[in-house]
Records
---
Amino acid sequence: MSDRSQLIETGIPFTFDAQRDAEFERLVKRYPTRESMILPALWLAQEQEGWISAEAMGYIADRIGTFASQVFEVATFYTMYNLHPMGKNHICICRTLSCYLLGKQEIVDYLKHDLGIKPGEVSEDGQFSLEEVECLGHCGTAPVVQVNGEFYENMNVDKLKELLATLK
Amino acid sequence: MQVKVLSARFDIPDAHKIEVAKENGAYSTLEKLFEMQPVDVIELVKQSGLRGRGGAGFPTGLKWSFLPKNNTKPVYLAVNSDESEPATFKDRYILVRDPHMMIEGIIICCYAIGSHDAYIYIRGEYTTQVKALQAAIDEAYAAGYLGQSIDGKDFRLDVTVHRGAGAYVCGEETALLESVEGRKGQPRSKPPFPAVEGLYGCPTIINNVQSIASLPFILTNGPDAYKAFGTEKSPGTHLFGISGLVKNPGMYELPLGLPILEVIEKVAGGLRDGRKLKGIIPGGSSTPVLTPEEAQTVTLDYESMAAHKTMFGSGGIVVLDDTVDIVKLVENLIYFYHHESCGQCTPCREGLGWMLKIVKKIVRGEGTTADIDLLRELCDNIEMKTVCVLSAACTMPVRSYLNKFRHEFEAYVKSDVSCQTAM
Amino acid sequence: MAEKVKLFVNGQEVEVESGKNLIDAIGAVGIEIPHLCYHPALGADGNCRMCLVGIEDGRPPLVPACKTNVAEGMKVQLDTEKIKKIQRDIMELELINHPIDCPICDQAGECKLQDYYMQYDGQKSRMTVPPVLKAKHMDFGAGVVHDQERCILCARCVRFTRLITKTGELGIVNRTDYARVTTFPGRPLSNRYALNVVDLCPVGAMTSKDFRFKQRAWFLTKSESLCHGCSKGCNIYIDHNKEKYQDDIIYRFRPRLNQQVNGYFMCDAGRMTYKLENDNRLNTAQVFGKETSLNETVEALRRSFSQAKKTVLLVSPNCSLEQMHAVKKLSATFNTVLSGYSDGYINAGDGDDFLIHDDKSANRTAFALLGIESSKSAFEAALDGADLLVSFQNDLCRSLDDVTLAKIQEKTKFVYIGSYQNGFSEKASIILPVASYSEDIGTLINADNILQRYVKAVIKNVQVSNLIHVVNLLGGEIKNHEEALTDLSATIAALNNIDLKHIPSEGIALTGKEVSNVAA
């Protein structure tokens, strides 16, 4: 956990595109209160833009009819919400327990060396971003890496090299 | 040793698809279900002895019976698919390989408790799993197993998937409810308990995925068939996740009550060649570690674990061999729990960060004996002083490592500690 | 009477009110349970864990007192070694990441962390690792400055903006020990009660831009009074201090609990009216621009009275009941016309459904009780043929524009007997300063017919007379405040059965009927 309270303001008004707008309206009917839409709406914004700006949070708060401070709280509490732009390939390495026991550090070290970025950073060309994350629930096939949401299990440096070659 | 109760369809190709699942028995309990009275369903589940598979092991049928009588408010079911306890990876097999077993379980549960709206809370990290789950739900709607009239009966049931977004604490049932309601996942004080005042202030039952998925078997085959597996007080089967330093890590369905060492040896292939056992985490990272000596007499059930001052937990077994540096392992664990502390209660919010800094100091070789003692004391000072048990999920295992492997901590500590004073 | 239950605290039987939580119920009989996040107006949150108490034979045996209601026969343990250790441990954890910058902290002297450290902790720091660093002096808007490092995350401020003002500007972002109170970008504190978060904050995390670094809390004398900012009559503390060689200065107003009137809070505008008591005050009497003594001024006034063909006395709706009564009697003695015209004190539409009223005067209800006519038409009629207008604290410039006033002044001499420099005092030929409410004693009836007393708080280096004394010097019958009260009780039917000399701290609710009967 780090401080996530420094939001990026784009200066550009945010709105959902037609697809997300329709999805918002579909989902809102599923809950007895509009506030329940805060997490789903933040996901929709992230799907649309890849990350969530201050403007997107303000838009969501107003659309739902809740306090911007509450959307801000939620967006900073849940660590999967990206509060700044990520690389085209966002690589998450599980750092917890079984992945730790089975050598996640070698994978992190290789990626740091190969991509020239540390966890939490985005490469200059915007192609890669790196993040160490907590347990991904794939302990039986540790260590595990997640790239743009896809799981890669039983990872080692050789397999990682092959994977990176397909991404570059 | 392995059995096929919950995992019966796991290896059938395309069993996640509704046609294949149906061919292999999915949704076949519904006819029987709707002929029964809801109270009889609850009674049946009570008789089966099914205990909550999320970690606490609370009897499922008993939990359902805590719903208030003469209730006029809506009743909600929240299915806990947060599965974020490190070393736990069982529920996702159900979500991906046999989601219809869980949906059928949801129908059974909702009919029993009188709920028409179920929310499945799935952790945000389960990206591919959430797609599989949603696809199955869409299939079930299309086939008439969900929606306005289930299986042609006068019973409406809507199931909504609510995605988390990276917060371990949302596996705590009231934090989960907060998250569904659109807030930070900060656990609520109990009482009131969710069965009385849960989601949107209404009576709510929260069950783990595996608990729910166990229901079709119990309904089809009866409580005795379920109780035929396992021990008297810990009946049934469990999807054990075995990970760490063994030859064949993985998810294995086993009846409860088997000797832990035998399971590690025979099911998971034993330790890697030439390695010696150092310890076993028996039920997820929050459970106190067992030494090889203690493990000799441990069986995989709630009672044996309790007798050995640890817990069955989520059934996520992690094997530690003699290459493991316990101090660094503890650093890894405290890092996790500190990272996941919701920040609500003073002891957990401030204390876990302090513990992390102390253990890091020890790992850096800058620690003192006083730091080890302080770390140990902080476990006591923090534990059970908070709204939820997240802090205890950290302090219980850390205390066990400090008690059982203190020599490893001392090896990190500089020799002379007499001149150490507090700032 | 509320129902009572008997329970045991540290083995001692106590009888307390039922239906309350342990903190409030046991606190009411003088036994403190330390707490930081609980506040009676905001409800129990249960995050600080400082109020954990033992319940003998209880399940669970350890409970947060804020979330636990009293029950008959309950055995509460506050003084066991276990509970004392918990309190010490919680305090230690509260303080490990706290900057402990008490020497430069405005809260010092009235800080719960300081108090509780002394009472419940008192141990040496065991913190040998770097603390968490957060942001300091953040401008939250509305005059509130926040220090994230001093903050203990009790969420009182957050709950205030969500539950009380329903504006929700504040939130606690992040989790774990990175959690911090902040505002959303571009949406700062912007409600009219924002400064209450400064009072609510149990530590020095929320400070008032207006007050910070001005005074140490322990030098301030805290005097009980009533806000005169509107007709709500919020109970306040006047915090003032007379430094060596200086005058007695007011540094802040703070709300004072009165469940019948304002609860725990007051509005920001009312809070800032303390400035009117310090600045732009009338200090010297003047007769036609020449500084005069009290005696000279009274002489000049008496001459004006005797020479005038028709005199109008204009009383302010901010005058106390006693002052109004004295002026009313003076008016009767000299056969003058009495008016309470003060339409300009009403700011229509400004009020809300919480504490702020449209009427920016404190005692208009007393007009009705005393039968003082305040309509514009009656005032205009009174002015017809009048050659002397004597205002008692009433700034007529708030009600009439300059052109109208100039027209009146062509025929009528203006006299101002009051405390403040204002538009009307500048136009007046004779000015006589009198004590303001912060320097005087008096009674007010608020918009909800609650009669309340304020007492003398400030003693200025150069003391001016109080208004009743001046009225007496001018020939008024009433000599002082006491006499006014005696006479009010005797002559005003609605007050016949009220002991005006002993008004309880929560005030006395007059029924609407009593007030309107007299007005008729």
---
Amino acid sequence: MTDALQPPPKKNPQTRTVSPTRPPERRSRATLGLSAAAAEGRFALQVCADCQTVQYPPRDACRSCLSPDLPWRDVSPDGALLAETTVRTSPNLYFRERAPWRTGLVRLDAGPVVICHVHGDCAPRGPVRLWNLLDRAGQAVLLAVPQERMPRMEDDPQLRQMTSDPKHRRVLITDARHPAVPALIKALKAAGAVEIYVGEPETWRPSPGRAALAEMGVDLQPLDVTDTGSVQRLAAEYGGKTDILINTARFLRPGGVLARGDTAFARDEIEVNYLGLMRLAQAFGPAMCARTADGVNSAVAWVNILSADALSNAPDYGCFGASNAAALALSQSLRAEFRGAGLRVMNVLTGPTDDAWYQPLPPPKVGPAALARAIVDGLQRGLEDVCCGDVARDMHERFRRDPKVLECERTMAGDQP
Amino acid sequence: MTALQKLATGLAAGTIRVVDLTHTLDPDFPVIVLPPEFGQCARFRMEEVSAYDHRGPAWKWHNISMSEHTGTHFDAPSHWISGRDVPLGSVDEIPPERFVGSVCVIDCSDQAEADADFLLNPGHIAEWEATHGQIPPGAWVLMRTDWSKRSGAAYLNMHEEGPHSPGPAAEAIRFLVEQRDITGFGTETVGTDAGQGMHLSPPYPAHYILHGAGKYGLQCLANLSELPPTGAILMAAPLKIKNGTGSPLRVLAMVET
Amino acid sequence: MGRPRQSYDGVVLTAPVSVPYERYSIETAHWWIARALREVLKRADLPLKDLDGFSVASFTLFPDTAVGLTQHLGLCPRWLDHIPMGGASGVVALRRAARAVQAGDADIVACVAGDTNQIDSFRQLLSSFSRFAMDASYPYGYGGPNANFALLTDRYMHEFGATRADFGRICVAQRANALRYPAAIMKKPLTLDDYLAARPIADPIALFDCVMPVAGAEAFMVMTEDEAIRRNLPFARIAGTIERHNAFADDPVQLRGGWAVDVDELYATAKCAPQDMDLVQTYDDYPVISMMQIEDLGFCDKGAAPDFLRDKDLTVTGDFPHNTNGGQLSAGQAGAAGGFIGLVEAIRQVTGQAGPTQVADAAKALVSGFGMINYDRGLCSSAAILEGAAP
């Protein structure tokens, strides 16, 4: 059984922070399909459309019939550990620094034989299940784990390298006004986050939730993502101890282009939803990127909460959706910019949330607890893309199937009676 | 000596003091809060363009953004629907001599301290005139409440039913406009109207009556406690914004010591 | 299957050359290949311009291939080959060249393998070794084949009851052979205790199971027997050869190689049996692979190599001379030259030119090659039986 992960000691101010190193990043285009599945926490392999042979490593033609039609399908992740080794040295700096490292050969029930990482709880030559996880290079790797969940298995040092687990980490929630913040704090605390800082904009306004947040034992700090100076001030003091940043800042008003008639709210939406993200990234990004190898409480993840409308827009919340699409596009740039340091960007796409601005919409809506759960679960599993709620899942599925068809569905004006 | 020579001599000798009635433009300075489905007043924001660095090696400068009605600011007649058709109603059209004038300061600080919803009524004005003489035509009238000494949440003093801050009653404004022909009315609060001014008749009477009559408003003033009840000269020149309904201000007053 | 293989009658191997290895080199693969080529031409007394066949194997020539080398080295061959098969490349080069000479496409082929080993060049080579390695083993910390062979060794030990000492005996004997071989990199005697106590690398693999990457080159020539006699060169005949790629692809773990597919044909063509061999040169980048070859090439049953070898003396003077110059485990692995080292030594042995490592009366040698850990196993296997003949 995994030894419990101990809280990190206070940082020795006289030792140099370890520079981030990364496992190998380069992959063939075919293999990026595995990374795409890992980003969502799915175990998928290429399965030949013609003869159903399951393939691994990913390739460009079927190993049994040469068909080039090899769609990715979710397949059984179960198999048996055939052989294993504990690697004690490697020419790759990342692995050298993390040795010893357990790896093995697993024969999947689905057919292929897979070289994979091996969780410490796996019995030699026993049954295992493969998890498809993103490593610190942001690429998929497979990890063999026991088929039954084990206590504290998330503390396994190899697994911990691949997740963004909040346990023993410090979290900054950027905007206290998001309705999910109390639930998020609760979920993070339950997941073992040690310190939670919550940004509070416009402290000159009444803040009905303030007292409740203060009672939850979080550290309220002035932070307004529309104010560069405010973001820089907080980053100067807290950037070096922000291990996970969850951007809850959101400016939301209903309406598309014509319904609005002006750009005033759109400007606010861009200021908060897009430029706010940029300001936060410019202020907190460098310090977080410098601390991705900083021990148990290394900087590990950056979380954006985005409307699923970012995938395909519709006029009801058209301008808000556009600002979220801008943020989604920015998050991709950010992903690339953070990837060199191994800092993960997790985008949580959500459908309409159960709060005032979506009040006129019919259910299903995403409640605060569900959103909080999705965020913490995504961190614990090290995901990059999370869909929260039925609406977002549905939208994502339709987007994956055909973005143009989705756009056609979303932009119908309705027939005249 | 001409009048201006005397003024220059007084300024040089310190017998005439310049008092700054302006709050610092600061991203954290409150702005008026309206129901969220309405358009909102932009807060002051400042972005660095360069600071003697790769973005501009020898100079530092900022781009700033704000509303016409952010910080210590000027309300022109065109700000309110009642003043939409007033001639010379926007800041770029107002004759410049209107920006400088004598000032009467009505001290309501005790009342405001006792009651955040204090309303200035004609009776209070009559009392003031009994002591300091009649308000002359073309004067600025400033309502001193010491509200500018508040900060943070206490400034707007928002409760669930809205903000609570002192201001003029409709009758008082009507009196100043119709009986005294003032140039404008100024306050230390975020608006010329009381926090609960929407519940008066007409709603927001200071805005409605002042601007409908072509008068001006000043708000978010500071340091009114340094002005004498009468005798000071006020200078409040808005930026010359085409069709502007208001403008951030640097408000100065000259006071004889 | 189908048509019988034709013999290599009339074609011979001559001029075995080993350029002494160096741990690290500031020189390039071009430089090492040139040195080996110069030496074989000298042995054969052949002017550079008269060489009409050239075969090269190298990992570190990038961005060049055999083509670039013709201009770089001033060659004008009418037959050119580039063998990217790592540990199988020696026998494969031999097979290709012998058929070319036999068919008259070339008169004399120089087969050269060489690689440099600069600081960090091994690590860089690994990162771009193969697509499957890039996609599916390198991301797991598989810096080179150590971990791959650790998995094979783990499974082999589990299946067949082999012990670390069984592997150790192979390594210890090869070190004893290397002490006789002037060009070997590892010159310190090795005991079984040293072997067992060595630093673990990837369990159950420890330091002395692994080869040392070095710089070096190996070469030999293929020509007609008449040509060899005319030039007064000792030569070896080719009794039989095989090669096979991606054999037993459905075996979950590689416990046998492609030799097992073709071994019967090898001996049938060569008209001999395993016990007729005077020495055996296996591809030995890890001792488990040598065991696998000894089994698959018919010296014993599958899984019986530990027992079979337990009673054998693998040194030059023993009853089962094996990797007589220390093999890669003790002489070093000079990249693709690791696919030549056993073959070049075998030519020396059966032609009586091995000097300090000479096995007495060596007439028949089995050489086998194994290469290219593309993902989880070596894909290329090859073997040849050589027979000596004095001029």
